[in-house]
Amino acid sequence: VVALLPVASILFIGSNLLGAGTLKDIALALFVGMAVGTFSSVFVATPLDVLLRRDDERIVKHTAKVKALRESGEVPTTVDEKGIVRVGALVPGEHKGSAAQPKRKRRK
């Protein structure tokens, strides 16, 4: 999304303010390509990757482990009306103070 903003501004400035046809054509092709690429990466490639990897031995073991842990009741789980599963309680963080900060390296 962030990368589309400068290309969109070039497209807008090139077509509306400057009237440059070549700049407009190149910016439009770049804008459409970036938008379609982003869309396909998020909504096509990711679900396809999950679908292709679901029979992987490590993922099957992990899924079985998570299901067994949920069914054991050892970890409290809640499912809300939207179907979102929450595992464990939310614990707010706390300030550890300046002693927890990394030490500054000495300059040479």
Can you tell me about this structure?
- The chain has about 110 residues and is mainly alpha-helical.
- It has a domain at about 1-70.
- The protein is about 60% helix and about 5% strand.
- It contains 3 helices and 2 strands.
- Strands 1-2 form a two-stranded antiparallel ribbon.
- A hairpin with a 5-residue loop joins β1 and β2 (about 85).
- α1 (about 5-15) packs antiparallel against α2 (about 20-55).
- The two termini are about 40 Å apart.
- The mean pLDDT is about 85.
Which keywords apply here?
single chain, 108 residues, mainly alpha, two-stranded antiparallel ribbon, 3 helices, 2 strands, 6% strand
Give the helices and strands, then pairings.
Elements: H1 4-17, H2 21-53, H3 57-72, E1 77-79, E2 85-87
Helix pairs in contact: 1-2
Q: Low-confidence segments, ≥5 residues, pLDDT <50?
A: none
Mean pLDDT: 83
| Structural class by helix and strand composition | mainly alpha
Instruction: Outline the biggest β-sheet.
Output: 2 strands, antiparallel
Q: Give the total of beta strands.
A: 2
Please compute the radius of gyration using only Cα atoms.
25 Å
**How is the largest sheet built, in terms of strand order?**
1-2
Query: In what range is the share of β-strand residues?
Result: 5-15%
Could you give the order of the helices and strands? HHHEE
Number of helices: 3
Q: Which percent range fits the helix content?
A: 55-70%
Multimeric state: single chain
- Specify the overall morphology: extended
Give the termini distance in whole angstroms.
42 Å
